[in-house]
Write a structure and sequence with these properties.
Length: 262
Amino acid sequence: MKQILYLLTLIALLANCKDTGEDDAPVTPTISYEQTNYFFHDTSLYTEGLLVHNGQLFESTGSPDTFRKSLIGINDLKTGRFEKKTVFTNKKLFGEGISFFNNRLYQLTYKTQRGFIYDANSFKLLDSFTYKNKEGWGLTTDGRHLIMSDGTDTLTYLDPATLQPVKTLPIKENGAKRDSLNELEYIKGHIYANIWLTNNIVKINPADGQVTGKLDISPLAFKAALAKQDCGEPNGIAWDSATGHMYITGKLWPYIFQLRMP
């Protein structure tokens, strides 16, 4: 009987140790949000970048298939139509993230290590530039630099005047490398990033590269998939500082969702 009681006590102690270890494991704080509206989105658009500029919702797309094109244009939220402003005639170029800075529009490409600069009003091509990152993914600005992702755990800060890197920022979540950083948006002093092939958006402190919060947009991805079965992953974060709304979409999604965070 004593042996049985000893074994039961030992099992209970081991179970308590296991529970304590799990409870002590670091967890990224969840960021709550409210869906306040939704709009129709052109389902032919393979979204690579999303942003609000002068009250309009701009989007850049890639062209993974021969029947698609790499475009930059404006989403008309009232009609769901996409107004094209630029297009790559070279099918080898795969459009990626975009950002406006000082009356210019900057665009990355996927694997060709080239970026393009357009006039922000006429969308006339002004110049191009190169970068050493093997790939170009997301692009945003903090008002001083252009900040790019390349699918790794490191963000690269570029000088807008020279398009040369001025620093890199390794990103960590709970002490581990946070890779697969995709589309970017700078919101109230923090960088938000889609995590490739997931329904998560992380909030990054640019001072130290630490992930301080996470949005789980699985409910939005589920709504998109119900309306269109071949949706791709979420990839598009836009912030309207005038209204305090965030806009979320994904590759080939039928909707653009409008959110508000507390």
